[in-house]
Amino acid sequence: MSQADRDLVAAIRAELASVDPGRPCDRLAESAGLGADLVTREAAVARLAVRLGRGTDAGLMLARRRRPKHLHTRQAPDPPPSREAGAGLTPPPPFEWETAADHCRLAWLRGRFLARGSLSVGNGRTHLEFVVGPAEAPVLADRLAELEMPVAWRLRRGRGVVVWKSAETVGLFLRRIGGGAALLELEARQVSRALRGDLNRVINAESANLQRSVEAASRQLQAIGRLEATGLLSAQPYRVRLIAAARRETPEATLAELAERLDLHRSAVQRSLDRLERLALHDPEAAAPAGRRGRQTGPGAPPALA
Description:
Blueprint: H1 3-17, H2 24-34, E1 39-40, H3 43-51, E2 54-56, H4 58-63, E3 71-75, H5 102-116, E4 117-120, E5 127-132, H6 136-146, E6 152-156, E7 159-164, H7 167-176, H8 181-230, H9 238-249, H10 255-262, H11 266-280, H12 284-287
Antiparallel strand pairs: 1-3, 2-3, 4-5, 5-7, 6-7
């Protein structure tokens, strides 16, 4: 990811971490989603843990003149200070998904994402995954599917990985767990990338069509010039000569434009120009009218039927 993409992901996570649950049940659910073994280097997530009543080992680490690159949290009330950072952690109360209200479920998912989730938006792709224990992965996938956000999961190096690769589903999930202004910026980028991609595809298709039209017109003009030099053009039917003259006057016109100008069908214009190209390639048999193809002339030829 570029630095701008990383900054956007950091802004989304900080925005989610700044959500202050109003209901006590939501606070308990989000704390349970953060888990008992939360270890983070994000200041916004650490502040969220403190707001939810979690203690940290930052004070102990600073007392030892150690810079806390990663903060460990524990449930309040704080246990007596221990000699080792992170010791004495007690798990939060278990979260009862089956009996919880939807707002509690979303608060739990927000905490789970902040604790175990990662988001990537680089190279025009949106990728969100949870890295959890192998036993939790299928449970988490079932819970997300229950909220109509189906997700894939797999085991990777002994850990469960729950993955979304759909930008639409990722946006829906982030919106439901509390994403706001930063999420709107992500969606605006996705729309901009989609528009640029569609525009590039249209331009490439038009460029390819234009190149083919230019090459075809060049071949047709060369065939018309060759037939005119040999006198074969004047022997062609009136419609063929009319189309040849129109092509010489407007070499940049498409078949549809020639047909509209001459009040003919596009297929008739294309057949006449193909006839001129075949005739210029010394294939009089292919360029002859259908009723005269294959007819023999001269001594020994069978008599024509009356």
